[in-house]
Write a structure and sequence with these properties.
Oligomer: single chain
Largest sheet: 2 strands, antiparallel
Helix content: 40-55%
CATH superfamily of the largest domain: EF-hand
Strand content: under 5%
Number of helices: 13
Shape: globular
Distance between the termini: 49 Å
Radius of gyration: 22 Å
CATH class of the largest domain: Mainly Alpha
CATH architecture of the largest domain: Orthogonal Bundle
CATH topology of the largest domain: Recoverin, domain 1
Length: 308
C-alpha cells in the first residue's frame, strides 16, 4: 500500500470527514508495520519512530496541520505522550503489540496482541509450545499457528465471531509479522514475541550478583521452576529455565534482539546436563542449580570487571 501524494503513509487510513482513523484490518496493520519497521528488526525505533510520530500527527488533515508547521518541540512532546501511554516495557521503542494498541485495529485481530493476561512463566510457555508443536518439528508451522490463534480467540470467547477465512488471514498476517527470518514458520524466539511471559525470573537483580545471592535466594528461584514441587527441575520446567537462561545470556549481544530456536535450547540443555547434572538423572536438583547460578554469576561478574 502506497503513501498519499504528499508522502504521508498514515493519512490514507483517516476518514476525510471526521479525520478519525478508520478501523484498520489485519492486512493493513501488517502494511503499516512493515512500512515503519523499515530495517525489519522487530521494533519501530530511532528515526523510524520519529517518522511514525511525525506522520501520525500530520496525518490529521494536510490543510490544518502541514509538515512545515509541526515544530520539533511539538513532535518531542507527542513522542513522550505516546511512549508514556503505549510503551509498556519502557524501552523507548514500539513493538508490534504496542502498535496494535495505538491504532484502531480490527477488534478480533487486536485480541491476539492483548497482554492483559501474560503467561506466568517460561515453564508455562514451554507447555503451550509443546501442545501446539504437534509434529514435534521444533517449529510452529502455519497450520499449528492457526490452531493456536483459534485457541486464543476461544479463550476470549470470540471463536464463533470470526469466519474460517478471517482466521486464515489472521494466521498469514501473524506469520508475516513475527517470522523474522522468513522461513514460513515460527521458532522459539519468534513465538515468544507473540506469546510473552510475565517475567523472566532470572532477570531479577538478586540473581545477577554472586556476592548478594544467598541460599534462600537460590531456594526461591528453584521453587519458581520446580512447579510440581517434586524436588527436581525437569521436562518443561527445565526447558523453561533454559529459555530464560538463553534470553539472559543473549540479552544485549545482538542489536536486533534475541533469536534462538529449539535446536539452540537442546544444545544448551546438553551442555548444562553434561557439566552440572552430577547424578546423571537428566534433571536439575537444588545443589545442581546452585552450581549453575553461581557459575553464571561468577562469569557475569568477571565480564563486568573486564569492561571496567
Amino acid at each position: 500500500m502506497a503513501a498519499t501524494a504528499d508522502g504521508n503513509f498514515l493519512r490514507q487510513f483517516r476518514d476525510l470527514n471526521t479525520r478519525e482513523f478508520k478501523q484498520i484490518t489485519a492486512n493493513q496493520f501488517m502494511d503499516v508495520w512493515h512500512h515503519y519497521d523499515s530495517n525489519g528488526d522487530g521494533y519501530i525505533e530511532g528515526k523510524e519512530l520519529d517518522s511514525f510520530l511525525k506522520e501520525l500527527v500530520t496525518s490529521i488533515n494536510k490543510e490544518d496541520v502541514g509538515l512545515e508547521v509541526v515544530s520539533e518541540t511539538a513532535l518531542k512532546e507527542a513522542k513522550e505522550l505516546i511512549l508514556n501511554a503505549f510503551d509498556e516495557n519502557r524501552d523507548g521503542k514500539i513493538d508490534i503489540a504496542e502498535l496494535a494498541q495505538i491504532l484502531p485495529t480490527e477488534e478480533n485481530f487486536l485480541l491476539l496482541f492483548r497482554r492483559d493476561h501474560p503467561l506466568d512463566s517460561s515453564v508455562e510457555f514451554m507447555k503451550v509450545w509443546r501442545e501446539f508443536d504437534t509434529d514435534s518439528s521444533g517449529f510452529i508451522e502455519a497450520d499449528e499457528l492457526k490452531n493456536f490463534l483459534q485457541h486464543l480467540l476461544k479463550q476470549k470467547n470470540r471463536q464463533n465471531s470470526i469466519t474460517d477465512e478471517q482466521l486464515t488471514i489472521y494466521t498469514g498476517t501473524v506469520l508475516q509479522l513475527f517470522d523474522r527470518n522468513k522461513d514460513g514458520k515460527l521458532q522459539l524466539s519468534e513465538m515468544a514475541k507473540l506469546l510473552p511471559v510475565r517475567e523472566n525470573f532470572l532477570c531479577r537483580p538478586v540473581f545477577k550478583s554472586a556476592n548478594k545471592m544467598t541460599d534462600d535466594d537460590i531456594k526461591r528461584v528453584f521453587g519458581l521452576y520446580d512447579r510440581d514441587g517434586n524436588g527436581s527441575i525437569e521436562n518443561e520446567e527445565l526447558n523453561g529455565f533454559l529459555k530464560d537462561l538463553m534470553e539472559l545470556v543473549e540479552e544485549g549481544q545482538a542489536a536486533d534482539g534475541k533469536d534462538y530456536d529449539e535446536e539452540d535450547l537442546n544444545e544448551c540443555k546438553k551442555i548444562l546436563l553434561d557439566k552440572c547434572d552430577l547424578n546423571h538423572d537428566g534433571k536439575i536438583n537444588l545443589d545442581e542449580l546452585t552450581m549453575v547460578l553461581m557459575s553464571y554469576n561468577r562469569s557475569s561478574s568477571e565480564s563486568e570487571c573486564a569492561k571496567d
